[in-house]
Amino acid sequence: MSTCLPSSDPSIRKGQIICPTSALQHGGKAFRFFVLCEEIVAFPGMNADPDDELPAFLIQFEDQYFAYLNRCAHVSMELDWNPGEVFDEEQQYLVCATHYAVYEPKTGRCIQGPCPDGAKLRALPITIRNDLIYFGDL
Ligand code: FES
Q1: How many Cβ atoms from other residues are within 10 Å of residue 75's Cβ?
Q2: Does the CB atom of residue 119 touch ligand 1 within 6 A?
Q3: Which of 12, 78, 92, 138 could make an S-S bridge to 70, C-beta 3.0–4.6 Å?
């Protein structure tokens, strides 16, 4: 079952560059991309074939970078208000546009909204080298 939507967001494989650090700003627009299901840790309710792709996003918060599957912990919806817009107005939290679940940018932990207790966004591994952000632990 394919779960991805038609998009111009790039498909990134492990070891490939997602984007340069200069493409992101603290609390700014997220960089959207797709990952192959077979390259991420399976999770309950993933409901996808290994060769399906899932949407993901990369953000900068303070001076750090974080990547998550673009999949709310409440219902499997993308978070964005508009493509890449996942932060609240104060640029302090990630917010899902559907029912307003609020997440900590550094941990992905849901701190407010309709998510089950202890719910988190699914973090993806990234590596930064020479101002480039790669998907995976290199
Ligand atoms: S789908 Fe995100 S809060 Fe409901």
Answers
A1: 12
A2: no
A3: 78
Alpha carbon of 109 to ligand 1 centroid (Å): 14
CATH of the domain at 44: 2.102.10
CA–CA distance, 83 with 97 (Å, rounded to integer): 11
Neighbours of 90 (CB within 10 A): 7
The alpha carbon of 59 and the centre of ligand 1 are apart by a number of angstroms equal to: 19
Residue 133, domain member (yes or no):
no
Assess if residue 99 is contained within a domain.
yes
Is 91 a domain residue?
Answer: yes
**Ligand 1 in contact with 98 (CB < 6 A)?**
yes
User: Is residue 50 in a domain?
Assistant: yes
Closest atom of ligand 1 relative to the 79 alpha carbon: 2
Ligand 1 closest atom vs CA 101? 3
Question: How many domains does the chain contain in total?
Answer: 1
- Of 15-24, 38-47, 119-128, the least confident: 38-47
* pLDDT (tens digit per residue) in 34-83: 999 999 988 888 888 888 999 999 999 999 999 999 999 999 999 999 99
Domain range holding 110?
25-122
Q: Decide if 48 contacts 37 (C-beta within 8 A).
A: yes
Number of the ligand 1 atom closest to the C-alpha atom of 114? 3
